[in-house]
Each structure stands twice: as C-alpha cells, then as structure tokens.
Specification:
It contains ten helices and ten strands. With 297 residues, it is an alpha+beta fold. GO terms for molecular function: phosphotransferase activity, alcohol group as acceptor.
Length: 297
C-alpha cells in the first residue's frame, strides 16, 4: 500500500462528509492508499514530494522518468463526475493537461503546475482579466454527458423555496431569472469554480485552470467565484456595489460576454448561493445577501 502521508486535519474533515451518490468520506479514505498505490504501479510513477489536499481531493507530485506530473485522487461526488471529461475536451488549452485517467475511480494523472503560484495575491483587476481570458478559451461546446444548468440548478431552486432563512425577495427574483434565462442556455462547457486559487502557473509561465466542476450552460454563470472570494477587498455600501460591478465587467469583457447578460446569470447564481449560505452560518448568509443586493440594485 502507498505510504503517502495524508494531512490529519484534512482526513478528519473529509471523514465527516456523508455519501453523495458514492462512498462516504470515511469509506473513501480507507481506499485512498490502495488507489494511490495502484496508480503508481499502473503508470510507472514514483512519488516526488509531499501530498497537497483540496476540499475533496489529494494531489501527489510524481515523476515518470524525467517527466514531472501530478497524481490526483478525488472523493466521488456529483461535482467531480465529469472533471476528466472536461479536461480531455479542453486538451490543455487554458487548463491543466490530462495525461491519463481512471474516471470511475476518481484517479487523474496531470501535468505538474506550480502549486505555489496562483492568483490569490495578484492585483484583483489583473486576476479578473486573467480568469476572463481563460474562460474565453474554455467555453467550447460541452460533451453530451455533461449535465445542463437547468438540471444542475433544479434541486437547488426547489430547496431554496423551502428555506425560511432565504429572503422572499431573493427566492422570487431567483426563480424569475431561472424561468427567463434557462431556456436560452447555449450549452457551452463551463468550469463553474474558477476562483483565484484555481488558476496556477504552468508551462512557460502560462496561467492555467485547475479543478473544474463541469456543467453545460451560459458563460455568464462563471463570474460568481470571483465575487464570492476575496470579499474583504470589496468594501461596504456604495463601494461594495461599485467593486462587484467592476469585477463583473472586467471578467465579462475579457471573456467576450455581454456585461448585462453576465450580470443576470450571476444574479441567478447569487440567489442560489444565498440559499446555500443558510447552511453555513450567519456570516456567510449576510455576505451572500449583500453581494446579491449589490448585483440587483
């Protein structure tokens, strides 16, 4: 079995996750050493450094001869189902290159990027323009197996109507936008989680996207992660409204998306995020409601 050390805090957190159509976090963690060892043997890899972890995945730097790669093992859950398919579709254009995969096991072999260099500390305007430029390259026709936004959002829209903590105006606005926007969904391949930490330096210094949560839909749906992260830099009151619209405009322009269309799709997503935030505590809910208001005013 693989002797790759997994961070204790990450193991403890993931072990609490209930099953989402596959094994629970605790059940999957028992399989991780075997999955890693089988992948190392299958692809003739040697471990080349300590493991890094994301919310639901472990990434191990490896080598195959002189080739530097990254071995990723992902906890099976709906958002991760089509990660390998999306990366294969993009073929390394704007995103990390997929070298090999065992999608049914959540095992991906990727080119190795610079995991210490992302957009988290980059000036926000520049970071938004970088992400918008990447999105312009990633928005290709989605493979048929990738679910559309209507399917993806249906359970969230149904749940938000039953959550008393979601302001009624947000429920009504979100459902109205869904009725208006979803029938015109163009079915492009969306990353949906391209925030500042999900862009890394790669070959020849190029910025590349990682960790997609693929859905087929309208490119305007992609802006939210750049608003919901680095929130402390947005200010309050009138400054918050200006900053939110400014970021949105930068991303939309760089991605080649009409700004008002992007605002409408982002407002739809913001409403869904308000609903989600009711499960994460008062601070998260307050933040999401403020962002929703800044977009809608």
């Amino acid at each position: 079995m693989s002797d790759v050390a997994l961070p204790a805090a990450w193991v403890q957190d993931l072990a609490q996750r209930p099953a989402e159509g596959g094994p629970s976090g605790a059940e999957w963690l028992r399989e991780v050493p075997r999955l890693l060892e089988e992948a190392l043997q299958r692809w003739d890899l040697v471990v080349d450094g300590p493991a890094r972890t994301g919310a639901t995945a472990v990434v191990v730097p490896v080598r195959r001869g002189e080739e530097a790669l990254a071995l990723k093992v992902v906890w099976p859950h709906p958002e991760a189902t089509h990660e390998a398919l999306a990366l294969r579709t993009w073929g390394g254009v704007g995103a990390v290159r997929l070298v090999a995969a065992l999608p049914s096991r959540g095992v991906l072999l990727l080119e190795r990027l610079d995991a210490d260099t992302d957009l988290v500390e980059v000036w926000t305007d520049e970071a938004c323009e970088v992400v918008g430029g990447l999105l312009a390259r990633l928005h290709v026709a989605a493979p048929p197996r990738v679910p559309g936004l209507a399917e993806h959002l249906a359970p969230h829209l149904e749940r938000m109507a039953r959550r008393a903590a979601v302001p009624r105006r947000v429920v009504e606005r979100t459902h109205g936008l869904a009725r208006d926007l979803l029938p015109d969904d163009p079915g492009l391949l969306l990353h949906t989680d391209l925030h500042y930490a999900n862009v890394l330096r790669g070959r020849d210094g190029e910025w590349l996207a990682i960790d997609p949560k693929p859905v087929a839909g309208h490119p305007g749906f992609e802006v939210w992660p750049l608003l919901g992260n680095r929130v402390d830099e947005l200010g309050t009151g009138a400054a918050l409204r200006w900053s939110v619209r400014h970021r949105l405009g930068l991303v939309a322009d760089a991605a080649g998306v009409d700004v008002e269309e992007a605002r409408a799709w982002t407002l739809l997503r913001a409403g869904v995020q308000v609903s989600w935030a009711t499960t994460e505590g008062p601070e998260a809910l307050t933040t999401c409601v403020a962002l929703h208001k800044a977009l809608d005013d």
